[in-house]
Amino acid sequence: MDLHKGAANGHSEGVLDLSRRNLNSLSLVNISEERKRDTKQLCLSFNRLASLPGSVCMFYNLEFLDISSNGLSVICEDITRLTKLRTLISKNNRLDEFSLPKEFGSLPLEVLNLSGNRFEKMPAQFLKLQRLQSLSLGGNRLQSIPAEIENLTSLELLYLGGNLITSIPPELANLPYLSYLVLCDNRIQGVPPQLTRLHSLRSLSLHNNLLTYLPREILSLVHLQELSLRGNPLVVRFVKEMTYDPPSLLELAGRTIKSRNVPYSPCDMPCHLLHYLDLASKCPNPKCAGVYFDSCVRHIKFVDFCGKYRLPLMHYLCSPECTSPCSSNPQSDAESEDEISVPADRLQKVLLG
């Protein structure tokens, strides 16, 4: 087809739409220098571009680039010359962790959507995008989330649904502005309690995973409005599974010192023992003044959400003899003043069914 004619029909106010033109290359011979300069949005989706043409860098003021649904397997090095590029959308291609230029992380990207590709690992270049606010890698083959995800401190949306992820790294909790976290349709078996530090989180999608309980700390997510849990093997009745490894002599000594407030100073013991004592966790049972270090009892407690749903949250008690903060009787438990409930205005949607 006549690319110049197509460009003329698809250009308005800085937008050049060359999508669905059956292009297998990008020749700019008939594109004026003025048009190259003024184009800020370029759409090349639904063509037949096996690799991103180097000529795209001729649009040196480009801020938005959509190259979705092309069968792309390579993004050329020239993309790093687009120093004003803020949004890159390359969905439904054939990209993997070897498809990107080495200096891809130098781009000033704020939005990156590479859903529907073939990534098995999150490329290291992504973790250098300091301005990134939205990262979508849904429908790939990712098996894990790297701990270095914490480097993306500007991130507000993270979409990783439809992968093969089995766990959530605690480092994810170090993203201060993260508001939307989508981890649905994976193989995740547990939620780290550190996620309570995501003070900006408004929506958490965990449906269609392998979750059997949630950490009790999730109740501290004060801005959470939507929690999606359908399609998980969450237990539907009270379960009291006590698993307990007897405490070591070190732990017994530490418990005695902390629970009885035995005074000590840096002069009394080696540094590693001082550090160990600092790791004491208080038993959550309000009727117990005990502490624990490594040895504790895993205990599942059900908590009311919005007066309609009961979610199994994980508690840790200091010993099997410790009286549970919730009664074994469902009726008395529901009426217990120790019961933790979340008012309806705290959680707008709990999607379980």
UniProtKB/TrEMBL annotation:
<dbReference type="InterPro" id="IPR001611">
    <property type="entry name" value="Leu-rich_rpt"/>
</dbReference>
<keyword id="KW-0677">Repeat</keyword>
<dbReference type="InterPro" id="IPR050216">
    <property type="entry name" value="LRR_domain-containing"/>
</dbReference>
<keyword id="KW-0433">Leucine-rich repeat</keyword>
<dbReference type="GO" id="GO:0005737">
    <property type="term" value="C:cytoplasm"/>
</dbReference>
<dbReference type="Pfam" id="PF00560">
    <property type="entry name" value="LRR_1"/>
</dbReference>
<dbReference type="Pfam" id="PF13855">
    <property type="entry name" value="LRR_8"/>
</dbReference>
<dbReference type="InterPro" id="IPR032675">
    <property type="entry name" value="LRR_dom_sf"/>
</dbReference>
<dbReference type="InterPro" id="IPR003591">
    <property type="entry name" value="Leu-rich_rpt_typical-subtyp"/>
</dbReference>
<protein>
    <submittedName>
        <fullName>Leucine rich repeat containing 58</fullName>
    </submittedName>
</protein>
